[in-house]
Write a structure and sequence with these properties.
The structure holds 2 protein chains of 2 kinds.
Chain A (H helix, E strand, L loop, with lengths): L1 H16 L7 E4 L5 E5 L3 E2 L7 H11 L3 E3 L10 E2 L2 E2 L1 H5 L5 E9 L4 E10 L8 E10 L3 H17 L8 E7 L7 E7 L6 E6 L3 E6 L5 E6 L6 E6 L5 E5 L5 E6 L5 E6 L6 E6 L4 E4 L7 E6 L5 E6 L6 E6 L4 E4 L7 E6 L6 E6 L3 E6 L5 E3 L7 E5 L5 E8 L2 E8 L5 E4 L5 E7 L6
Parallel strand pairs in A: 2-4, 2-7, 3-7
Antiparallel strand pairs in A: 1-32, 5-6, 7-8, 8-9, 10-11, 10-33, 11-12, 13-14, 14-15, 15-16, 17-18, 18-19, 19-20, 21-22, 22-23, 23-24, 25-26, 26-27, 27-28, 29-30, 30-31, 31-32
Helix pairs in contact in A: 2-4
Chain B lengths: L1 H19 L6 H4 L11 E3 L5 E3 L19 E3 L12 H13 L5 E6 L6 H21 L7 E7 L10 H7 L1 E5 L1
Parallel strand pairs in B: 4-5
Antiparallel strand pairs in B: 1-2, 3-6, 4-6
Classes of the chains: A mainly beta, B alpha+beta.
């Protein structure tokens, strides 16, 4: 009995410590994805992560799936570790996910799962199957890998459930109120990187995920640092007179773009890591800022007031020409190319500031209805946008799918959260 | 492909040169990859994160007491135009600076939270510059003036409404 109590207590402690700083509240689009039945996995009792619930949450957040609630899954859907397609088909789900987590040698566990088609000519066929080993400590990652495989099987696109995000937490009154954190994309495994007495802005990932560039006000003025997130060692990259802001690492890893005002007004520059030199890109009396790279690292998008109000422009390194990209909307800011497409995510000013998508023909689609959105960052597979917004009186993170159908808030349990930056895809 | 390899090598080399001059010694220099001196106090927290700054340092008005309550200029939304009611504030500081040629003023530009942080830090700089220009016109030596923009990062008033925003769109004269 005592032993059992201890075991229960142990589980409770785990449950509390594993509590994500970021929770999720779905605010739209929950029933619009593809219906899928995810059965609880048959798990070794030592495994304290409910793999199936991690998978369900991943698939739902992607905006592409609507996993069925467990309460509506037929009891006879899985019999003797086999999916009973006839039984589950009655739910209307397109496919059924089921798996086992079994102990193997060396404290490791095999995570094995299959996806069985439930409708049409493929009914009863296994459409995806995978087996891989994991330790208890990496079980959430193993669950995210299951989600990645399922996502890819259905969409043909890589899943990005094993990515990290960086963001800033502000806890006024704390010893170090400004905190740069990284976490799994779903808010778990939060790791503090820098805690400062002065503001931190604009984290930007190196494409290999090893370093973050960011702006720190630690010397009572902004400077750009590059920090290795494992060793904590850092380099001061830019601390010129005036603005040193908006760092953006190129996708090919060779350059860091930024805004400097050392020559009189905010203009776009980049630091060439190979040459160890700063290069100027724009020279304009109006504000030029918020540089971000095209996916091929051959162009920079940026925000400029050269035409009066802030709009998005694009500088092409091959032609050395700058063209205006956005025309609709009072002001457009914070452009981010959606990987794999020619569309951009922007913040547009219409009844406040909202996340919107600008398509190659120039048309603009509102993705949100909130009014204080900022700092959009697109998932590396282009499916989702994470951004910060004010929700129920507090600044926190939110997700919206690139098609605008799925929306969720990630309210914080502590402090205000801003400046999310979606990290790169690393593992296969 | 070969080009990619070259780029990787170049990057590694450039970072290598940055590390090459790092010094060994006390804990905080070990945290600085390029060996550059940091103006801020560095440390490692119990959770393994880098800590920056002195939590006991005072973070408020450092100027003369008589100017403490007249050191803020408020702005309209997305504007750097100085309204007439704040001319007296700048005049007081200009008088003080002219009488005290060793005094140095830092003009801090701030914005409300609307718009994007990276745009707002540029707007905050424009506000600070606009105040600096006016102070120069009042006869203050340019060497006594410096500007810094915090954008929307240091609101004077917490809150997500116009009452807070109107107090946050400001320039603060500090020393």
């Amino acid at each position: 009995m005592f032993k059992r109590l201890l075991a229960v207590f142990g589980l409770m402690v785990f449950a509390i410590s594993a509590q994500a700083e970021l929770q999720i509240e779905i605010t739209g689009g929950i029933n619009e994805g593809r219906k899928i039945a995810v059965y609880p996995f048959a798990q070794d009792p030592n495994v304290n992560v409910d793999v199936a619930s991690v998978v369900s949450a991943d698939l739902m957040r992607s905006g592409k799936f609507s996993p069925l609630s467990r309460s509506v899954l037929p009891n006879n859907g899985v019999v003797e570790n086999k999916v009973n397609a006839d039984a589950v088909a009655s739910t209307g789900a397109e496919a059924c996910v089921y798996g086992v987590v079994q102990a193997i040698e060396g404290g490791k566990y095999n995570v094995e799962f299959q996806v069985v088609a439930l409708q049409g000519s493929k009914k009863g066929q296994v459409i995806a199957h995978y087996k891989g080993a994991s330790s208890i400590a990496t079980m959430r990652q193993a669950a995210h890998r299951v989600s990645d495989r399922i996502y890819e099987a259905f969409t043909g696109q890589r899943g990005c459930f094993r990515t990290r995000i960086a963001y800033i937490v502000t806890k006024m009154g704390a010893k170090f109120p400004y905190q740069l954190m990284t976490a799994d994309y779903d808010g778990y495994n939060e790791t503090p990187v820098v805690k400062s007495t002065q503001p931190i802005m604009t984290p930007s990932w190196a494409p290999d995920g090893s370093r973050l560039a960011y702006v720190s006000f630690e010397s009572r003025r902004p400077a750009i640092f590059v920090q290795n997130i494992k060793t904590h060692k850092r380099t001061k990259l830019a601390s010129f007179t005036g603005l040193n802001s908006s760092p953006a690492w190129s996708p090919d890893g060779t350059k860091i773009a930024m805004t400097l005002s050392k020559d009189g007004q905010p203009d776009i520059y980049y630091f060439d890591l190979g040459l160890g030199k700063f290069q100027r890109v724009t020279a304009n009396k109006a504000i030029d800022t918020e540089p971000t790279w095209s996916a091929d690292s051959k162009a920079l998008y940026f925000t400029s007031e050269r035409g009066g109000k802030a709009q998005i422009y694009k500088y092409d390194f091959n032609t050395r020409k700058t063209e205006r990209v956005t025309y609709q909307g009072a002001r457009n800011l914070s452009a981010r190319q959606i990987p794999g497409t020619k569309s951009l995510i922007v913040i547009t000013q219409v009844n406040g500031f909202r996340v919107a998508r600008v398509d190659p023909d120039g048309s603009i689609y509102m993705l949100t209805t909130s009014s204080l959105d900022e700092s959009p960052s697109v998932a590396p597979n282009g499916s989702m946008v994470i951004y910060s917004t004010v929700y129920q009186g507090r600044k926190g993170l939110a997700l919206v799918s690139a098609d605008g159908r799925f929306k969720a808030n990630l309210p914080s349990s502590q402090g205000e959260i801003s400046a999310p930056a979606w990290g790169p895809l690393l593992s296969k | 492909m070969l080009k990619n390899y070259l780029l990787v090598i170049l990057c590694a080399l450039s970072l290598g040169t940055l590390t090459a001059c790092s010094t060994s010694g006390d804990d905080s220099s070990a945290l600085v990859e390029d060996g550059s001196s940091s103006d801020a106090q560095l440390g490692l927290d119990d959770d393994g994160s880098l800590t920056v700054g002195d939590p006991n340092a005072q973070d408020g008005f450092n100027g003369p007491a008589e100017l403490q309550n007249a050191n803020t200029i408020y702005f309209g939304f997305n504007s750097e135009n100085i309204q007439d009611e704040y001319l007296a504030v700048m005049q007081k500081h200009a008088n003080y600076l002219k009488k005290n040629p060793d005094a140095r003023v830092i003009i801090e530009g701030h914005t409300d939270e609307r718009g994007t942080p990276e745009y707002n830090i540029a707007l905050g700089e424009r506000r600070a510059r606009s105040v600096a220009r006016y102070m120069q016109n009042l006869g203050v030596d340019v060497n006594q003036l410096s500007i810094v923009s915090y954008g929307e990062e240091k609101p004077a008033v917490e809150g997500h409404n116009e009452a807070a925003w109107s107090k946050n769109r400001r320039a603060v004269l500090n020393y």
